[in-house]
Amino acid sequence: MLDLIPHESLSEELLQFRDSIRRFVERELIPLEHSLGPNGMLAPEQADSLRERARRAGFWLMDVPEEFGGQGLPLLALAVFWEEVGRSTVASWVRDHGLFGPMVGPILLGLDASQRARYLVPVLEGSKRSCFAQTEPDAGSDPSAMRMRAARSAGGYRLNGVKRFITRAALADFAIVMAVTDPEKGARGGISCFIVDMDAPGVTLATSEKTLMGDSPCEISFEDVEVPLANLVGEEGRGFALAQGYINYGRVRQGAHACGAMERCLGLTAEYVNQRKTFGELLSARQGVQWMIADAFTELYASRMMVYDAARKTDAGHEARLETFMIKTFAVEAGFRVVDTCMQLHGGMGLTEDTPIERFWRDLRSYRITEGPTEVLRTTMARQILKHYS
Predict the structure, then answer these.
(1) Are both 196 and 245 inside the same structural domain?
(2) So what's the pLDDT on residue 372?
(3) Which of 257, 163, 245, 268 has its CA nearest to residue 213?
(4) Are strands 174-180 and 130-133 parallel, antiparallel or unpaired?
(5) What is the CATH number of the domain that holds 100?
């Protein structure tokens, strides 16, 4: 592996941790890539076997605090972990296999004691699954346009509205739902977070959408759904802040996954251009190809440093929201560009399922939209930058 990580970027312990994950990925995940179905999923028995091997290898519940039976890794270590598992399409974040333990996230970890007993613990035990419901038909990248209403009722709140493109909704036992509690305040103190059981009266799974990544997010309808006060997460009006914390965490994860995909595809491409001849000459001997490879590796290097920097600042307790925006607008965009370049250099082979490049291409294309479209984040960044320099 060509390793250009500055010595001070990762401790010796983290470098050893990275190497152990890489060995697991190469031994256990990459060989299964040709076993993925059309939807990108493993057969249930394969996934179960892989989960057990991950548990035995010590790669289980990496982001869950030790008090709940996890390893409680800081974000920088998680970024290293996500980057390495991102080198295989088997572990794509787009299609949740739960190969390294149930997906939890910061909102569930921040529940109060009663809520943890009813929702977090069952998720960790594998008896319940959750989904995150924020996007609406008219409120995707603009949460201020959210129409889902949570009105106070005798027992708590009554929810009415529709959520759309909700990943894992069809398999979820409960949803983490964002809804408007004060229309006048909107995103500035008027959105709250609730836990809603999917079998509650008035909750209906509507249409599902088949995406190019192979997953099928759903639309969820809420009609006069009664939610007890005990299912309000945090304080009323703090839902938008909770959602942003969840999404910022996801942006670091996306950036790390993009770095893993870039490195894997670059490795495959270097091997290919060193063997492939056209017009009597190796592709790797052509200056145009050399420059494409050099530029792609530069983008990988820069992206990796951005991910590590945002993770390190977050671990130190600093505000890193702008840094996670830049991960989206640069690292995630770079990930797609690099994988697209690798596909181009493979020619017709890059379009086939004989290499994992086409699946990486589809997944990374989705990252440019999910967790906040890059165009929206650029606008928000520009406002902050202009205000800073004014």
Answers:
(1) no
(2) 79
(3) 257
(4) parallel
(5) 1.10.540.10
